[in-house]
Amino acid sequence: MYKNLIKRVFDLILAILALPFWFVILLFLSTIIYFQDKGSIFYNSSRLGKNGKVFKMYKFRSMKMDAPDLRNEDGSTFNAEADPRLTKIGKLIRKTSLDETPQLLNIIKGDMSIIGPRPDLPEHQELYEGNEERKLEIKPGVTGYNQAYFRNTVPWKKRIQNDIYYIDHLSWWLDIKIFYRTAISVLKREDVFVNDKGTNSNKNTDIGM
After folding, report:
1. Rounded-to-5 percentages of helix, strand, coil across the chain
2. In whole angstroms, what is the distance from residue 136 CA to residue 126 CA?
3. Rounded CA gap, 204 and 79, in Å?
């Protein structure tokens, strides 16, 4: 009941309540992002959704226009505080996780949930092994079990197993705990960035890839 209906109702209610506050953030950040390098405000990236359906995930653009796509050895997104591809405002919105807030629109559209596995790139589906495709059994989330308890400190394959653990233990109480721990971590800004070896390079927080 909770997994298939109540969770969606909570997602819609919370996302709609947060929308007016997000519009204030949008007006403020969009002006800065645009005038910093005259580029687009949003970065829309294809991601794997429930049952492998591909959707467009929305983020505020934190990198310079036409920045090269750099990846870690496991295919995950390279993420470092000293990344020269980041704009000045991009560093700030990464540290505060404000770059992820446009995903409120994904929640309202039904592509995402507030809590769930962070979505992988479409090409990552070919890299799934064993039971790893089970990650796609539910909608991806703006934050999730990995982001609340491990952040960017575990490798991609371990994150997938953590996502499957979340699916097997999904409950209202677990979502509440994940939401609370995520909020605390965002305020403390822990483990936002990782270095090129996959370990955390400072103590800040990011929600997502």
Report:
1. 50, 10, 40
2. 13
3. 12
- Integer angstrom CA distances of residue 94 from 55, 86, 88, 167, 187: 22, 9, 10, 27, 13
Q: pLDDT for 31-78, tens place per residue?
A: 999 998 888 999 999 999 999 999 999 999 988 887 766 665 555 566
To the nearest 10 degrees (0 to 180), the angle between helices 7-37 and 88-95 is: 160
pTM: 0.82
Could you tell me the two tokens for 167? 């699916």
Q: Are 57 and 35 in contact (CB under 8 A)?
A: no
CB 206 within 8 A of CB 191: yes
Pairing mode of beta strands 54-60, 113-115? unpaired
